[in-house]
């Protein structure tokens, strides 16, 4: 699969152009108002308090999980839990970083520009819809080892800071979205529920927990998926740690004032990089829609 060009010409220019967009708005261009129907439709892409609490409950308790490895030297524990409605097991990884504060890791996870510097598996990472300041629908495609087909995902991502707990949360789940038709060159994966949990340590640094319940789909055997996930999940946290250490210095020279996950996304602005489906994907989606309408 041919990788898309993620040079500054493609995405960084969007960020630079926003200043002009804001100036135009200030000069009298009226921002578009959402209709009642549109607002109702957008609600399904907004995480509820119950979903956030559910994620916190998963991270706060290991009940129902089985420890599959516990590396005291690396401070890394891997746990699995069977799911009721799928043979794909959930994976939870628990560790802590003595040399990284949660605020830094949280920013590093959010910064789409930074991810492109260290995620070697990513083919495309872009925004489908910025729903509100704390929810987005995004597109992510990634490389898989030969002969496995590359995967892509359409995920609803949400985030929240809990000051009273000194905790930062980011989680996602896959959704269907009209602007994210299935790309024929990929196998569409499905995230049941996945996310990151960061908590400040009194002695400095942060507790890091990662939970993933993800089905890559396709012809891969379930046993292989569960075994590989137990290896991939902890390696992701190791890679994240190594790269988050570089983030503060990198950020000084790369959009240092751009932290909309803290300052607030403006849903009327263009996303940092808008996902554009391929013509083939759009055509296939239209055919599928017409076939369903005819069947009714």
Architecture overview:
A hairpin with a 5-residue loop joins strand 9 and strand 10 (206-215). The longest helix has 23 residues, at 222-244. The protein has helices at 12-26, 36-42, 49-60, 102-110, 112-118, 222-244, 247-252, 260-263, 279-295, and strands spanning 66-71, 76-81, 90-97, 122-132, 135-142, 151-162, 167-174, 187-188, 190-200, 206-215. The radius of gyration is 20 Å and the shape is globular. The chain is 34% helix and 28% strand. The chain contains 9 helices and 10 strands. Helix 4 (102-110) crosses helix 6 (222-244). Strands 1, 2, 3, 4, 5, 6, 7, 8, 9 and 10 form a 10-stranded mixed β-sheet that branches. The chain is an alpha+beta fold and 296 residues long.
Strand content is 25-35%
The 3D shape can be described as globular
User: What's the helix-strand series?
Assistant: HHHEEEHHEEEEEEEHHHH
Q: What is the count of DSSP helices, taking H or I runs of 4+ residues?
A: 9
- Low-pLDDT ranges: 1-32
How far apart the termini lie comes to 36 Å
Work out the radius of gyration: 20 Å
**What is the number of strand segments?**
10
SSE class: alpha+beta
Estimate the helix proportion, in percent: 25-40%
Largest sheet at a glance?
Answer: 10 strands, mixed
Report the average pLDDT across residues: 85
Give the oligomeric state. single chain
């Amino acid at each position: 699969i041919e990788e898309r060009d993620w040079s500054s010409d493609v995405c960084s220019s969007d960020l630079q152009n926003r200043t002009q967009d804001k100036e135009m708005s200030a000069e009298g261009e009226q921002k578009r108002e959402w209709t009642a129907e549109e607002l109702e439709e957008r609600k399904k892409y907004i995480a509820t308090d119950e979903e956030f609490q559910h994620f916190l409950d998963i991270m706060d308790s290991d009940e129902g999980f089985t420890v599959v490895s516990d590396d005291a030297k690396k401070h890394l524990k891997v746990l699995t839990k069977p799911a009721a409605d799928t043979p794909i097991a959930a994976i939870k990884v628990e560790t802590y970083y003595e040399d990284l504060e949660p605020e830094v890791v949280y920013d590093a996870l959010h910064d789409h520009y930074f991810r492109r510097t260290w995620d070697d598996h990513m083919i495309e990472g872009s925004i489908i819809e910025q729903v509100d300041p704390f929810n987005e629908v995004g597109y992510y495609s990634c490389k898989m080892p030969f002969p496995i087909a590359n995967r892509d995902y359409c995920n609803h991502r949400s985030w929240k800071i809990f000051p009273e707990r000194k905790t930062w949360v980011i989680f996602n789940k896959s959704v269907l979205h009209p602007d994210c038709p299935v790309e024929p060159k990929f196998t569409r994966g499905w995230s049941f529920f996945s996310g990151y949990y960061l908590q400040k340590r009194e002695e400095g640094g942060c507790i890091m927990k990662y939970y993933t319940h993800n089905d890559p789909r396709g012809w891969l055997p379930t046993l292989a998926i569960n075994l590989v996930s137990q290896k991939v999940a902890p390696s992701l946290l190791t890679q994240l740690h190594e790269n988050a250490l570089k983030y503060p210095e990198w950020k000084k020279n790369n959009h240092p004032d751009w932290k909309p996950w803290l300052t607030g996304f403006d849903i009327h602005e263009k996303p940092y990089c808008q996902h554009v489906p391929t013509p083939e994907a759009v055509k296939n989606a239209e055919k599928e829609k017409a076939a369903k309408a005819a069947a009714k």
